[in-house]
Amino acid sequence: MSHKLASAFIAALFLAISSLSGVRAEPPRPTTNNAAVLSADEARRALDTLQDDKKRVQMIDTLRAIANASGPQQPAPPAPEQKSPIPLSADGLGAQLLLTVSEEIGDISSQIASVARTITHFPAFYYWIVRTANDPAAYNLLIEIAWKLALVVGCALAAEWVLFRLIRRPVAFLEGRVPQTAHLPAQVLPIADPPSSVADVTPAPELSKRRHSLARVWQVMLRLPYVLGRLVLELLPVLLFVGVATALLGTEIGQPTTVRLVILAVVNAYAFSRGLICVVRALAGPFGLFPVRAETAAYVEIWARRIVGVGVTGIAFANVALLLGLHRAGYAALLRMVMLVVHLFVVVIILQCRRQVAEAIRAPAERQGIAARLRDRIAGGWHYLAIALDLALWAVWALNIRNGYSLLLQYFVGTIAVALITRVAIMVTLGLIDRGFRIKPEILQRFPGLEIRANRYLPLLRKTVSGVIAFIGFVAVLEVWGVDAIVWFYGGQIGSRLISAVVTIGLAVFIAAAIWEASNALLDRQINTLSRDGHYARAARLRTFQPMLRTALLCLIATIVGLTALSEIGVNVAPLLAGAGIVGIAIGFGSQKLVQDLITGLFLLLENTVQVGDNVSVSGLSGVVENVSIRTIRLRAGDGAVHIVPFSAVTTITNASRGAGNASVSVNVAYKEDTDRAGQILKDIVEEMRREPDFRALIRGDLDLWGIDKVDGAMVSIVGQIRCTEAGRWPVQREFNRRMKLRFQQHGINVASATQTILMHIAPPADGAANLTPRRAAG
What we know:
This is Small-conductance mechanosensitive channel. By secondary structure, the protein is α+β, with helices and mostly antiparallel strands. Among the domains are: about 150-185 and about 215-325, no CATH class; about 405-485; about 610-650, SH3 type barrels (Roll), CATH 2.30.30; about 660-745, Alpha-Beta Plaits, CATH 3.30.70.100. About 65% of the residues lie in helices and about 10% in strands. The protein has 23 helices and ten strands. The protein has helices spanning about 1-10, 40-50, 55-65, 95-120, 120-135, 135-165, 170-175, 205-250, 255-285, 295-325, 330-350, 355-360, 370-400, 405-435, 440-445, 450-480, 495-535, 535-570, 575-590, 590-605, 675-690, 695, 730-745; strands spanning about 615-620, 620-630, 630-635, 640-645, 655, 665-670, 700-710, 715-725, 755-760, 775-779. The strands form three sheets. Strands 4-3-2-1-5 form a five-stranded antiparallel sheet. The protein has a three-stranded antiparallel sheet with strand order 6-8-7. It has a two-stranded antiparallel ribbon with strand order 9-10. The N and C termini lie far apart (about 120 Å).
């Protein structure tokens, strides 16, 4: 019977309700012969079919058609076996898990269909309507019931109206005497002379709440006599209505018996509805026992009228239909549907009032702790539990489950207890985890990046631990519901294999994460150590290698963990490895340029040709190296542009950051100037710059003056160089040129211009031919 109840709850789409699985009826014991064993319900349906002429004729026609069928039917050819695109082994975890899930889904679907057939017997209701419409005797009976019902109800309503008019003044008198507000008696407080603080004149909160509660109880006691008197007066017209109707039915109007019973069902339904509405108004309303606001009282009365109207009217209609010949199955189905509508009304009320009830359940803002958090959690989801309980009560009643309400109470209380324990365990465990991840200052000083790395995995660890505890709580809930879930995790069962696979994959992921973080920590620590010790070149080289090492390690770890996970769930990894090898060979042949990039980049990095921060010229492009991957080099030009050069396009690399950067000296002075004097001035400029703090660390030696490099009729070229560091070449050269220009101006040394001087002989006039003199033309 429990599986039957569980199916009903699944049909209601509530997993918490589907747990009532402890009351399933015992299956019939197999007999030694092959005869089919009929249940009482099946025998009753067969008897109804045989007694109904129309159904019996239909059954005979069906059996005759089956017997006259021509020849045995050929069995359908077996469908071709479909192979899974994923190579799952037959005894693997994945195949068994899929098989188990499919079997459970099929079982649940069949149970839902069975419960739906049990609850809904609408064909019986339809056959009753058709039979009643086609039966002249039933039609005449309906006509007789209609006019007698109108007569009885009309007379009873008239008597009720007259009495209602007579009691209006007594009712108004009682409503005017109902106490509306209970005032607290004046409180005498002991006041200090003079008062030392506000506490001396402020009552204790507990005492004030207690006095307020006593005042409310006293107010209810004062209102009780008036409310009861008003309720009695309002019920008098209802009692008169029932009395008049009963008296009329005692005459010839109440004959035959079927007519009397139908009219009594309608009269009782009306009286019951009026009585319930009067009781609701006496409990909650402006003149009720518990005074509420006008809009609240109107809301309560509206929904009370809807629920009572639908429920009582539906039950009365079902009883009338049963008296008029409706089958018992159709009667039961109609009652179930009516009560389902009533329970759905309750669901609507729960949803409309969920915020107000949540505010009443939620803990005050100033309260902290586990109890306050539990109240907040319950306030956020109380309506789900209320809806589940409401539909569960309907399912227990609709399926007529033996001891269903006691089991439902047991399961509901057990579920709430397990949920609370699970929530407390999660909060305590998460608190311990947060406390464990607090790193001491001395450890942080020793490992600066440890806290950042640990915080990366803290959210994932919290979710994983919460999920594990929630899963344990779910298994405990299944045990409370009567499902032997522990058996799933015995040796050889699907649960034990699933847990083993999850634990194995979790360990693989944990080890992979530990290796990953340890490798990154060691690399960062080595780089910091080299930088601290002054080995900047080695630190830059390791920093260049770091992205490629991390990428390679990540690919290796991801591959190993992925293969481990696939192997644990039952996937045959051998074909995957073979396919990966073939794909790798194909990529190697089809991507020769990519392979060339990788190989060239690997050797350039191994030979320490370039490092991050170097100033290089590659393939006609110059800039500072920002990143070096295993395939490309990224340069930042002086104008801010970024150049990405693949290693396959690199033929020559000019690196200006390899420890030395000499500033060249080349100056052209006029032919007439003293070159020794000019050279001495250049040496003095370099000596002056070496004494200054800004250039002392950039210049590695004095001016290396090579001498006169070129002489012509207009100028003399003096060349040399200044030995500098790799970072001081351009600053030193620019400052040297500036000072050289100023110093030459101060000493009157002329720098040779780029103009040319041409000597030309111009022919003199005839009278002055004897006086030929050369003239100079400058151009």
